[in-house]
Specification:
Length: about 200
C-alpha cells in the first residue's frame, strides 16, 4: 500500500469521512451474476482444478462523497474478507497457495492476464470485483494511470505470493487443495453465488 493511501485509509477510519455505513452497502450493489472461468494447471501456474475465477462486472454503484476504496473495504469486511490493502496489480505472474483473494477495482482500469500463459486476459474496470480461488495466476499487462485496487482475503487464509519458480509445483498443488470454500461471497454474502458455484465444481 502506498504511503498516501495508507494515510488516507487511517484518516477515514478515525473520522468516518468518506467511509460508508455497513447499512448503506446493500443499496450500492447492482444485481450481477459473475462470469466464471476455470483454468487448468499448465505445469507452471497451478491455478485451481475445483473452483473457477469469478468476475462480477460493474457490480458496485459508488455514491458521491464516499471513497470507492473504503466502499470495497467495508463491503468485503462485512462478509468476512479482511486484511485489506490498497494498491494496484503486480506486473509479474504470481499466485497464492494458501488463500483465496478478492480484488475490487476502486478506480481506473487494467488488462490482466489470469490463469498463466494458457489463461485469459480480461479488462477490469471501476466497480468490478474479481474473486481468485487459491492458485490462480494473475499478472497485470497494462493499466490506466489512476488504477486503484482493493484486495482482501478470507479470515482463515494464510498469505503467500510466490512466482512459479519460487515453489515446488507438487507442494503448491497440495496447499491449494487444502484451502476451504469461504463462508460467504465477498460481494453478496452467504446468499451470494460463490458458494453455490464453487461447491457445484468441487
Amino acid at each position: 500500500m502506498s504511503i498516501l493511501q495508507g494515510m488516507k485509509k487511517a484518516a477515514e477510519k478515525v473520522t468516518g469521512i468518506g467511509r460508508p455505513a455497513r447499512a448503506d452497502l446493500s443499496g450500492m450493489l447492482r444485481d450481477r451474476r459473475p462470469v466464471a472461468y476455470l483454468f487448468a494447471d499448465d505445469g507452471k501456474t497451478p491455478n485451481n482444478a475445483k473452483y473457477p475465477l469469478l468476475h462480477y462486472r460493474d457490480t458496485v454503484a459508488f455514491k458521491a462523497g464516499l471513497d470507492p476504496a473504503a466502499v470495497f473495504e467495508e463491503l468485503f469486511a462485512a462478509h468476512g474478507w479482511g486484511r485489506s490493502w490498497r494498491n494496484g496489480i503486480y506486473d509479474f505472474l504470481h499466485f497464492h497457495t494458501q488463500s483465496h483473494e478478492v480484488l475490487g477495482i476502486a478506480r481506473g482500469s487494467a488488462r490482466v492476464q489470469f490463469g498463466g500463459a494458457k489463461g485469459r486476459t480480461l479488462t477490469v474496470e471501476a466497480g468490478d470485483v474479481i474473486v481468485l480461488p487459491a492458485g490462480t495466476g494473475h499478472q497485470r499487462i497494462r493499466k490506466s494511470d489512476d488504477l486503484l485496487v482493493v484486495g482482501a482475503y478470507p479470515e482463515d487464509g494464510k498469505y503467500d505470493q510466490p512466482e512459479p519458480r519460487d515453489v515446488d509445483h507438487a507442494e503448491a498443488l497440495k496447499r491449494i487443495g487444502r484451502v476451504p470454500v469461504p463462508d460467504a461471497d465477498p460481494v453478496y454474502g452467504t446468499d451470494g453465488p460463490l458458494r453455490a458455484l464453487w461447491k457445484a465444481q468441487a
